[in-house]
Design brief:
FMN; 7 helices; 197 residues; alpha/beta; Rossmann fold; binds flavin mononucleotide; flavoprotein
């Protein structure tokens, strides 16, 4: 099994990174001999989508100039890495009610009509299928239940966008309340105990 671990927290003591590593460890224990590839979007961010990228994306592959091909390099790489994986472990810190811009940029680079999704008579169809996704979602507050649950735009967003690409088999593991004094100490052990692979 090939595991792709995507990191998007820039913090060395990150909860989402620690939780992601724990998910990877459990997967390795359950599937000995598996390989792990790590993509760190905090240390190696992908550029925001620029005009050259968009022009190239809408140009048929056979008509692209070398410069246009180069503009798609990050996207091609990100898609290839994901296609080669059987399992995606996705670290997602909760930032300002959404995800870090680096993670959003990675997702933008993954969404390519005709490559990762297509439109059919029956509606849109995701083309990245047969993979399992584990989201290691860290948040200062609590969004799984209670009054803040309506402000959880992260898990629904990831389900919608990655599901649109065909990644519909998704488990969200939460380390939450990391900024709540009475929850902070137990947040990570509780999250780790809830991992099911
Ligand atoms: C820029 C920034 C924005 C944040 N926004 C939110 C937020 O909207 N809601 C929340 O509950 N926590 C928020 N937090 C707290 C983080 O979600 C929390 O510290 C989490 O553990 C960060 O993930 P990490 O430990 O993997 O870095 C924010 C933290 C930062 C640094």
């Amino acid at each position: 099994m090939h595991i792709l671990h995507v990191i998007s927290s820039p913090r060395s003591s990150s909860f989402s990174i620690q939780l992601g590593h724990q998910i990877v460890e459990k997967l390795l224990a359950a599937h000995p001999g598996s390989t792990v590839r790590e993509r760190n979007l905090a240390t190696h961010p992908m550029p925001h989508l620029e005009e050259a990228y968009l022009q190239s994306m809408y140009t048929p592959a056979e008509a692209r100039t070398p410069a246009q091909q180069a503009a798609l390099r990050h996207s091609d790489e990100a898609i290839q890495e994901l296609l080669e994986a059987d399992v995606l472990v996705l670290g997602a810190p909760f930032y300002n009610f959404g995800i870090p811009a680096t993670l959003k940029s990675w997702i933008d680079h993954l969404c390519r009509s005709g490559i990762t999704f297509s439109y059919t008579a029956a509606g849109p169809k995701g083309l990245i299928t047969g993979k399992k996704v584990y989201v290691a979602l860290s948040s200062g507050g609590v969004y799984s239940e209670g009054p803040m649950a309506v402000y959880d735009f992260v898990a629904p967003y990831l389900r919608a966008t990655l599901g649109f690409l065909g990644l519909t088999d998704m488990e969200v593991v939460r380390v939450e309340g990391t900024a709540v004094p009475e929850l902070a100490a137990t947040a990570l052990p509780k999250a780790i105990a809830s991992i099911e692979v």
